[in-house]
Amino acid sequence: MTMTAPGNSNGPVISVSGVSRWFGNVVSVSDISFDVFPGITGLLGPNGAGKTTLLRMITGLAATSEGQVTVFGESVRNNPELYRRIGVMSEHEAVYDFLTGRNFVQFAATMRGVADAKQAAAEAIEQVGLTFAADRKMGGYSRGMKQRMRLAATIVHDPELLILDEPLNGADPRQRVHFQELLKNLAKQGRTIVISSHILEEVESLADRVLLIVNGKLAASGDYRSIRAALNERPYHVRVTSSDSRSLASGLVKLPEVEAVNIDPDGALIAQARNVLALQMALPKLALESGVRLVRVEPLDDSLESVFSYLVGD
Amino acid sequence: MGTLYWISVRQLAGRSRMIIIGVLAIVPVLLGLTISLSNDAPTGSDLDGTMIALLFGAAILPIITLTISTAALGNDLEDRTLSNLTLTPFARWAIILPKYTASITVAALPLLASAVIALTLAYEGDSKAVLAGVAGMALALAAYSAVFMWLGLTTGRALGFGLMYVFVWEFLFTQFVSGLRFLSIRAYMVGVVRGIDDRRFADQADKIISMPVSLAVLVALTIIFTALAIRRLRTMDVP
Predict the structure, then answer these.
(1) Domains of chain A
(2) Chain B residues near any Cβ of chain A (below 8 Å)
(3) ipTM value of the model?
(4) How confident is the model over A235-267, as pLDDT tens digits?
(5) Among B4, B79, B89, beta carbon nearest to A80
(6) Closest-approach residue (CA) in chain A for B92
(7) CA-based nearest residue to A77, from B92, B79, B1
(8) Which phi and psi (to 5°) does residue A5 adopt?
């Protein structure tokens, strides 16, 4: 596929201004504003945070209850011509099982007005590494293969803006790496890519900028590294089950990285530490020195929800 | 639009759906065959009432159309493939029209084939009677398809509402309240049939809506509900 460099513009590619969306009494997205520029932007948030609703408003699939969304400076709602410049991959595995992968991508190319749909489809399928399966019906594809073929259909018209909702769902580790490399290459060519995920690590290696959505609100935005640094400073709770919690606790409280130690009713030890990496290193060493056998070590607040709660100061 | 038309035909002509429609389409043919072989052949007015108004008009035609047309966009909504169509530079009418014509194609082939064979057998090869029946059904098919396609895009319970309209409103209510026939596609179909062949429905002539009115209303319904479907696709939130 010939990837042409998108037109240079100083304005934001996507501008979201005071956008809210409610369904009856339920507020799904509340007064969110941000701009998106070329490069990869990660839209992060726990399940149910409002990411998909926000993306649906950005792509024009859903109307806003309040506020305005513009893409390339134009209102995206009821503006079909804009879709020549946008590629959207929704979170749903929306494919036609009776079509072969090649026919599906070719159909997507035709629907987007690509002059040589056949050639464009072949090149897009090549990019996602599925040429070997292109002539098989999609009904027989694995979930990961469907996702990759959907990505091919998303990029087949060489769009300047890619909006991908949970695109790595169902992909195996090898496919994830391939997928991430492909997106990085597309971004290097000057494209704007918005990728949503509820998995922090998924976005970590990809996004230059992160938008954190929690409970329908924009909880944080900015450079990924600064957000990650803030995350590393938050207190972690680790539950340790061992052969002798009391001996281990007396050793742990002496460690500078440990802020507090409690023993729960089950006899397991709960350690609170700022620097979780240091605790991970020190714990086995301490157990060995104290002659204590470690049975189980588990983080108590590693979920994305707890990370976001920390960031928004709950 | 051609590609979308063929994809839609393929989507709608799923195996299980076509088996059900095939079975429905065979019923009038079997009845026609029985009538043609019977020694006590029914009179023309019996045939009009049984074959055209009752079997085709109140059952086969609306059920086949309902099954296909509510799925024309309803299936895309249900399996979430509608965004594959709306996230394209195509104007909304350019999505609706291929969908509409595809649903007409898939419904018309078994329905009209069944009508031609069944009516030919029942009316003993009377070509004017067959033409009147087929023309009335074709026009009603166009109107039903537009209405049911819009319904499929508007509600997830399109089949239920459609069945209520066909059986409760068109079949039941119009029998008791004569004025309600003006809100019945079936009544306009009968109007077209009688308009083409005035020997048909001769015993109910005073209750039949005139041919010009029937034609005008069926065409108007087709246009209005296709336009409503376009408008709906433009304003709705696509899942």
Answers:
(1) 14-230 (3.40.50.300), 235-311 (3.30.70.100)
(2) 3-4, 7, 10-11, 79-81, 83-92, 234-235, 237-239
(3) 0.84
(4) 778 889 999 988 888 888 888 878 889 888 888
(5) B89
(6) A80
(7) B92
(8) -70, 135
